[in-house]
Amino acid sequence: MSSKPSIPKGTRDFSTEEMQRREYIFDTVRQVFRLYGYQPIETPAMENLSSLLGKYGDEGDKLLFRILNSGDYLSGVNDEELTGRDSSRMSSKICEKGLRYDLTVPFARYVVQHRDEIVFPFKRYQIQPVWRADRPQKGRYREFFQCDVDVIGSDSLLNEYELVKIIDEVFSRLRISVVIKINNRKILSGIAEYLGESSRITDITVAIDKLDKIGTDAVNEELRAKGLSDDSVKKLQPLLALEGSTPEKLSQLERILSESATGLKGIEEMRILFSYISNAGLKGKVELDLTLARGLNYYTGAIIEVKSVDVAIGSICGGGRYDNLTGVFGMDGVSGVGVSFGADRIYDVLNHLGLFKEMVMSSSEVLVINFGSAETAYSLSVVEELRKLSVNTELYPDAAKLKKQMSYADSKKIPWIIIAGDDEIKSNSLTIKNMSLGTQEKVSLGDLRTYAENNFRKSK
């Protein structure tokens, strides 16, 4: 007996019910993006590796899925390279393309490539899958969707404020309680200067970014392993443990980082951003978190991370300011800022909280029962009329037993049944059954439009 086919670890099939739930997330996010004036684009699943490598740090580069060149991909490799088994060197010769790791770097490439067609500031959103060669675990997949929203070509902190508003609006509509954590990479650079370890800013941020996952002791050990002195590690601890309100934390930082122009600039930016936020009437909680680092190297200013209050699953949204990501593609001095919503983790949170249970999961609102060829013309006229009214309607394709057709409607959670049999045709009417209430009533064909507008549309 042959075994069932399977799919790669870290990827998933989605059933019709799961897809309806996912579409609910995508539609909610998309509606908010459009509300704030963002427009959609798409980029290819694969990019040239030259566009991807070096943008995510060493750890990110290791997680890139590489695509073998077409044809005889070993033709450019000599015997010495084959026997040398140097995978990194070999990869550069046999792979010229890779699956995108995120949507931000491809966006920067898109901006540079299409700069003559774009009006700046350019506000775009993008909802597409990305791939990472990571170890699959709960809440972490090798293929997953991101919902990105970015504005590029503007330095204004009003953009960061707008992104915080977008985050708050999306999660409010999804009924997920969140805490929005904000920090600034300039502050982190100032801290590195204060520690006397400016050259190790990447090592420091990569380690600090793991604080929630591995704890203080493990972070300190990693910092020492990267070459930080015991004095520097000790000096760092009080900074990561600052307490008080946001203004109080910023005042303490200002005294500590008084000799760092970069650090002071970051503090100033945070004061401005939080002054906007304080008057925004947000529904969720927003806090300054000096342990927030976000490991991606291209961030230069504000960094943002969002976590669910009720479900421990890691970040469900994150992003930040990048001042010159387009520079690596030959277009210097263009600043951008954006955030990415993790649709898969958001799905897991909604599922864990039972928030999908209240949703009507059927794509069809009405099923018209099929009684046979004699009734087909009448039934089809009903189906077409309802579809003209934008009511999702289907006619059961076969003249099966009524019990089977009713069971089909029940399994698909179709809320309304229309019976158009011989008696209904003679009286030029329909029998309409409400599946949830178990009630039914007779409606004349001429009153179908009014009935649909007052009942079917209200059930959407």
Task: Kindly summarize this structure in a few lines.
This protein has 460 residues and is an alpha+beta fold.
Strand content: 15-25%
The number of distinct helices, counting runs of at least 4 residues, comes to: 18
Q: In this structure, how is the largest beta sheet organized? A: 8 strands, mixed
Top CATH class of the largest domain: Alpha Beta
Low-confidence stretches: none
Would you mind describing this structure in some detail?
The protein has helices at 16-35, 49-52, 57-62, 79-84, 87-94, 104-113, 158-174, 185-194, 201-208, 211-225, 230-240, 246-256, 261-277, 343-352, 373-388, 402-411, 422-426, 448-456; strands at residues 39-40, 46-48, 66-68, 95-99, 122-131, 143-152, 178-184, 285-288, 302-308, 315-322, 336-342, 366-368, 393-395, 416-419, 429-434, 439-444. It has 460 residues and is an alpha+beta fold. The chain has two domains: 16-45 and 107-352, BirA Bifunctional Protein, domain 2, CATH 3.30.930.10; 366-459, Anticodon-binding domain (Rossmann fold). α1 runs antiparallel to α7 (158-174), α8 (185-194) packs antiparallel against α13 (261-277) and α12 runs antiparallel to α13. The longest helix is centred in the N-terminal third of the chain and has 20 residues, at 16-35. The radius of gyration is 28 Å and the shape is globular. The chain starts with 15 loop residues before the first helix and ends with a helix. 34% of the residues are buried. The mean pLDDT is 89.
Write the layout of secondary structure elements.
Elements lengths: L15 H20 L3 E2 L5 E3 H4 L4 H6 L3 E3 L10 H6 L2 H8 E5 L4 H10 L8 E10 L11 E10 L5 H17 L3 E7 H10 L6 H8 L2 H15 L4 H11 L5 H11 L4 H17 L7 E4 L13 E7 L6 E8 L13 E7 H10 L13 E3 L4 H16 L4 E3 L6 H10 L4 E4 L2 H5 L2 E6 L4 E6 L3 H9 L4
